[in-house]
Design a protein that fits this description.
Elements: H1 2-24, H2 27-41, H3 50-70, H4 74-98, H5 115-134, H6 145-169, H7 184-187, E1 198-207, E2 210-215, E3 229-239, H8 261-265, E4 270-276, H9 286-299, E5 304-308, H10 311-317, E6 324-328, H11 331-337, E7 343-348, E8 351-357, H12 361-368
Parallel strand pairs: 4-5, 5-6
Antiparallel strand pairs: 1-2, 1-3, 4-7, 7-8
Helix pairs in contact: 1-3, 1-5, 2-3, 3-6, 4-5, 9-12
């Protein structure tokens, strides 16, 4: 039995550390996934707290994994992991059986799992954690107490510093389709022979105080809008897409609303795109930094575009900066492409040659030189 407990402990510890590290590489990605769940559940008021929850959850997964591997305070962490895995199993089960969430974000964008894979992974972990909880007294600390305490402290410090770093300077490992080396136009193409999601649509109406559900092919013979009160439209995924473009809905528009995506991505040579999701919450001194980069680009005859969802704010703040063209972009696309607000893309045609956070704007200037 002790062997089984130790094998379970090692598997759980390694998987939680791996899961935490992958998501800690991109805590904003997990916060956006949380917002997706909250939107489905109508809990819009929690969206402002998702980044904090993401950072805390990632940190806990790593620290808990380290504690389990060290055999440190096993009773406490067995209960905490049980609570966490029950919560994760609920989320992955909801994603699987509701069809409303395509992926749970369990391993971030670097290792996407289907809802089915995520659910059974959590069931497997749930079994292992129950074994550890029931027989936690068989686990003894691997190292002396002072060493264990020091390693736990180091893991906490690593979680804090590491996530601060990626939130300031972009993820260490970029797993997004907008990463360096990718051709954005190629990423926007749908794979040949791919089929889109297929949904079954049904409708809920109320008649004589009773709710009735039927689809387009089974409307009641006596259907009349005066007799039936519309309640809801129900959409259920019956067949997931067999393939889809890595980048969807990437559209750049001029200030008049015209689509200029191809004209920008098809141009020859270098240019810069600065993604600013929200000028009001952009990083410190971003206007001064953008001015420096714009001057360096102008000296080389390189155009610079600011892609933003807050055009009016950007125009008012950069009214005296030359060599900058303001382009409208959807906020969802911008926050997917650029995890830090704002982020510089050094482009060569449709290829991403460099990607730098506002804090590293000097590297954009160096690259231009």
């Amino acid at each position: 039995m002790k062997l089984l407990v130790n094998i379970s402990r090692i598997l759980v510890g390694v998987l939680f550390i791996f899961s935490g590290l992958v998501k800690a590489n991109d805590p904003l990605g997990l916060s956006y996934k949380m917002q997706e769940f909250f939107e489905v559940w109508g809990l819009h008021g929690l969206n402002d707290y998702t980044l904090m929850l993401s950072v805390l959850m990632n940190g806990f997964e790593i620290v808990a994994g380290v504690a389990v591997l060290l055999g440190w305070r096993m009773r406490l962490f067995s209960w905490l992991l049980l609570i966490l895995i029950i919560f994760f199993t609920f989320l992955t089960g909801y994603a699987l059986f509701s069809g409303k969430i395509k992926t749970c974000g369990c391993f971030g964008d670097c290792l996407p799992l289907s809802p089915t894979q995520s659910f059974w992974k959590d069931i497997f972990l749930l079994v292992l954690i129950v074994i550890i909880l029931v027989k936690h007294q068989l686990v003894k600390p691997v190292l002396p107490a002072i060493t264990n305490n020091f390693l736990i402290f180091l893991s906490i410090a690593f979680c804090i510093v590491g996530q601060w770093y990626v939130l300031t300077y972009l993820p260490v490992v970029d797993c997004l389709p907008y990463k360096i080396g990718n051709n954005l136009q190629e990423q926007m193409k749908t794979p040949e022979g791919a089929l889109p999601d297929s949904f079954a649509i049904s409708f809920k109406y109320r008649k004589d105080g009773k709710d009735l559900v039927f689809d387009m092919n089974n409307f009641p013979e006596d259907f009349d809008e005066e007799k039936y009160e519309y309640v809801d439209r129900i959409q259920k995924l019956v067949r997931p897409a067999t393939g889809q473009a890595a980048i969807a809905d990437f559209v750049l528009r001029n200030t008049q609303g015209g689509d200029i995506t191809d004209s920008i991505l098809n141009q020859q040579g270098q240019y810069i795109m600065l993604f600013v999701k929200d000028a009001g919450t952009a990083g410190k001194n971003w206007i001064e930094h953008a001015s420096v980069v714009a001057k360096a680009a102008a000296a080389k005859g390189i155009p610079m575009y600011i892609v933003t969802a807050t055009v009016t704010q950007v125009q008012s703040q950069l009214y005296n900066v030359d060599n900058i063209h303001i382009v409208m972009g959807d906020a969802t696309i911008i926050k997917t492409a650029a995890r830090v607000n704002p982020t510089y893309f050094v482009m060569d045609g449709a290829f991403v040659k460099g990607k730098f956070a506002n804090s590293n704007y000097e590297k954009v200037v160096e690259m231009l030189k």
